[in-house]
Design a protein that fits this description.
alpha/beta; Rossmann fold; seven-stranded mixed beta sheet; 7 strands; about 20% strand
């Protein structure tokens, strides 16, 4: 980060260390991040990502367009971090990324926080036959627009706000359509 406040150093109250810890413990093969923004959440996840794994971020704006980006070209050079410019809340986009999404072990929803986009994302996720039950981490679950979305999720979930972001961090074990791993 170019200047304060240095959010990754705030604990509790920020989710960067929580995300890094989850990646370190869970060793996911494929992480999907929805809402790359400045890359501030992307980088700690990538740091603890197993060597054979990847993190794929989706945004409607390329990471270089953010004036306060923390990402650099080198972060994408090894192929373990990939950004797609597409909107996964649009049902017509899902077929394009279906195979990738089916492989996801962890999904971090860090996007609009308007309640509408997240509802569309969840509706789209219900059409995916995940190979394993992914963990879906939601940012800002205590923001007014997100309260109903969070409360309406019927899969097992846990509010981790005390360990995550001051405006809410929630984790969901996605129990909608999935197929057992072939391992």
């Amino acid at each position: 980060m170019r200047g304060p406040p240095f959010f990754p150093d705030v604990l509790p109250g920020e989710h960067y260390r929580l995300l890094a810890g989850l990646v370190s413990v869970l060793n996911p093969k494929v992480i999907i991040e929805i809402g790359t923004g400045s890359g501030l959440s992307t980088l700690p996840m990538k740091k603890y990502l197993p060597q054979e794994s990847k993190i794929v971020t989706f945004d409607i704006i390329v990471w270089k367009s953010f004036p306060d980006t923390c990402l650099q070209e080198d972060d994408l050079r090894d192929g373990r971090l990939i950004q797609y410019i597409d909107d996964l809340s649009n049902p017509s986009i899902i077929p394009k990324y279906r195979r990738l999404l089916e492989e996801a072990n962890m999904i971090f929803v860090h996007a609009a926080k308007d309640g509408a986009m997240e509802k569309m994302l969840l509706d789209n996720f219900r059409t995916i036959s995940f190979r394993e039950k992914p963990l879906i981490i939601f940012d800002d679950i205590r923001v007014w627009n997100m309260l109903k979305i969070w409360r309406d999720i019927s899969s097992p979930k846990l509010d981790l706000t005390s360990f995550g972001h001051w405006s809410g961090t929630g984790i969901v074990e996605w129990t909608y359509p999935y197929i057992a791993s072939l391992r």
